[in-house]
Fold this protein.
Amino acid sequence: MKVSKKRAAALLAAVCLAGMLSACGGQAEEPSSRQIFAMDTAMALTVYGTESSAAVQAAEEELMRLEALLSRTSEDSPVTALNRAGGRQTVVGEELTALLDAAGTYSRKTGGAFDPTIAPVVLAWGFTTGHNRVPDPEEVASLLETVGMEHVHLDGGTAWMDPETQMDLGGIGKGYASDRMAEIFRRYEIPRATAALGGNVLAWGTRPDGTPWRVGVQDPRSPEDSSALACLLHLENAFAVTSGGYQRHFESEGQSYHHIIDPATGYPAQSGLTSVTVVADCRRDDAAGLPGNGTMCDALSTALFVMGEEKALDFWRTSGLEVELVLVTEDGRVVVTKGLAELFEEIEESGYRYEIVS
Ligand code: AMP
Ligand code: MG
């Protein structure tokens, strides 16, 4: 499918937040919409149906609750308590234990490319504080000794870490929040909705006219222009989560450094990719429990960005996880896995070359 960039922008009628994936739809019914700033991110909810107002309210309260639960910068979050415990066992509750357990699972599955204990390294690069700097190689090497999920231990609602190890759920938290949004939409029997939580989109149901939601994959070369897309995805009942170096970066001595760190080196991943989008089904059997596929997509988008094209596609072929991918490469290609072949639209004028892989 091909569509001009201008037409694509016109199609994206509703929520288009700068620098992030966006989900947009038609206007037959009046939705309840809300923009929220939480988890250091501009978020947008658009919810349809008779219970839409109540669901939007519940969703906002839930996002605030999650911010308080997962923040590593607030004084009184359980994550902060864990980070300050100096090795002591800490009560973090069942919910956070389940998320830490999921983080450990995805860390193992990705051979450590996703690793939330990368926290001290992210801090050394200044991405937690905004005071960006390029750390010395010796400093990076010594911090890497504290990194690894083998330093994290869980037991029945409690957690403890080896004394120097630190936890940063920034690579998975918004995906978990999108799982919670899906849970709220299910509970309020919402027929259709979109939730754009930074680069994490939930496309719930279909648009009011019964066609899929249109989710734009931001062009990493033009992050400041939200209408500049690398491709469009036509999705229903799906999570679509994007990680990209363009989302947070700084310059020093003519070099650009971004926020996704390769745990093998302690340096920003230089894998030849400029963004990775991971798509998966958002419906689940109620017995499956949370965290769900939103969390999975978030962990994997970070990990596959670190891995690069070849390893990411190997992972897609062999992991057994039901996901589809859009990889945008530094050399101007958009690589789409075959499950999305009928669901993606090329953007003429973007200059990208499109490849479908199986
Ligand atoms: P995302 O936008 O989901 O790709 O997450 C990026 C954020 O996760 C960064 O801002 C860091 O806080 C953290 N992070 C950076 N590198 C990694 C990594 N390799 N594994 C897990 N979290 C990471
Ligand atoms: Mg992520």
Q: What stands out?
A: The longest strand covers residues 273-281. Confidence is low (pLDDT under 50) at residues 1-27. The two ends are 18 Å apart (CA to CA).
